Amino acid sequence: MKYLNKVLSKKLPQLKLQDSDLGNIGLVLVNGKKVTFEEFSKMENLKVKGDLDLEGTAITELPSGLTVGGYLNLRKSKIKELPSGLTVGGDLYLNRTAIKELPSGLEVGGNLDLMGSKIKELPAGLTVGGDLDLDGTAIKELPSGLTVGGYLYLGRTAIKELPSGLKVGGYLDLEGTAIKELPSGLTVGGDLYLRETAIKELPEDLKVKGEIRISSEMKKTFNAGRFKSKIKVR
Asked: Per residue in 81-109, pLDDT tens?
């Protein structure tokens, strides 16, 4: 059974757990040394140069101040909370975990996949460099200062309003949500999906680089204003 791909650096180990059965072994290989899950959890301010894949393992705690240069995969793991000071340079996968909240100061350089997770609230000032998928979560509102570099998907959520000044680098999908109006200062780098919403007009200071997509049922009551050339009806 393979424990990892290889150690790239003595100071910055790459942890690549390839087999979900490692959770039954209770060991992690760090800098060529086998350590128990308990020992691993106490390695404060550990810097991992590559990916850290803990899917399906029995590990219950991550070290505080952990920095992962690649992706961090916690799907189906036993971890119930994330440590303070966590920084992930790549994607962060939290779906199918018992984690219910995100720590303040969390930084994710890639995608943050919360689809179907138990997360109920996002921390203020959260920055996601890639996509943020909240599909099927219990999250009811977005925090102030939220910045998403990729797309933001809010389908099947109870979110009813967006924070002012929200910036989304990719597309923003509000289809089927209870959102009735858009906030001031909204910036969308891709398409804006408004199908099956009660939104009837757009704020004057709205910035959308892509198309604005609405459903045919919305066409009669929708006031596109200066955005008529961007409207696309399904």
From this structure: 999 889 999 999 998 899 999 998 899 99
Q: Name 187's Cβ contacts closer than 8 Å, sequence gap at least 6.
A: 166, 167, 168, 207
CA nearest to 117, candidates 88, 137, 93, 133: 137
Residue 208 contacts residue 188 (beta carbons within 8 Å):
yes
Token pair of 195 as six digits: 């199908």
Are the CB atoms for 120 and 138 separated by under 8 Å? yes
**Whole-prediction pTM value?**
0.83
Q: Which amino acid is at 123?
A: P
* Cα gap 80→141, rounded to integer Å: 22
> Do strands 72-73 and 212-214 pair parallel, antiparallel, or not at all (unpaired)?
unpaired
User: Rounded distance, CA 46 to CA 208, Å?
Assistant: 40
Torsion angles phi and psi, residue 15, rounded to 5: -100, 120
Dist CA 103 CA 126 (whole Å): 10
Amino acid of residue 60: T
What is the rounded CA–CA span in Å between residue 195 and residue 215? 5
The answer to whether the Cα torsion of 38, 41, 47, 50 is positive or negative is positive
Distance (Å) of CA 231 to CA 75, 97, 181, 205, 227: 39, 39, 16, 16, 7
Answer for the pair 174, 157: CB distance below 8 angstroms, yes or no: no
C-beta atoms surrounding 82 within 10 Å? 22
